[in-house]
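Quick one: Transcription factor E from Thermofilum pendens, structure tokens please.
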Amino acid sequence: MNAHEALAEIAGKMFGDNAKKVMMVLASNVEVSDEDLAKDLKMDPPELRKLLNDLFEARLVKYRRARDENIGWYKYYWRITDEPIQQILSDRKRLTLSILEKVLSLEENSETYVCPKCGTRYTVDEAENNNYTCEVCGEVLEPFDNTHRVEKLKRAIELLGNWDPSPKQQASRAIPHA
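--- reply ---
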């Protein structure tokens, strides 16, 4: 799998099939305007622009803006990023670990309540403010045992913490050890 195919796979996992299709079109071109992309992929232009912006925020694509002298508007030309995939993945790993660790801390250090009927969760303060009744359906709230969630978060942090996005590490995983 080459770098562009890998980026397309990543985009597909993050944003869905349309993102993968966009990345594949961009991989076969130097630059493509969002208008041409929309035509090629038969996508609604505003939907495509939102997807391109999501891909840009994820650092998977870049753009160049040029003024159309005839109408005075800007045209945007998109291309696949030139950043190393490993750097993008390492940064995303770091960000994801940070978020997971914050969520774990909240889960371990706070008491929550849940509605047995509709499943809405409440912090202890929210539960107290509502007299331990659900705002949605009026049921009496029950303490929520988040032990399972805490264990899942710890496992996810462990797995992600041990994951190395470098090509050398990925190649060694593909080869069975004797």
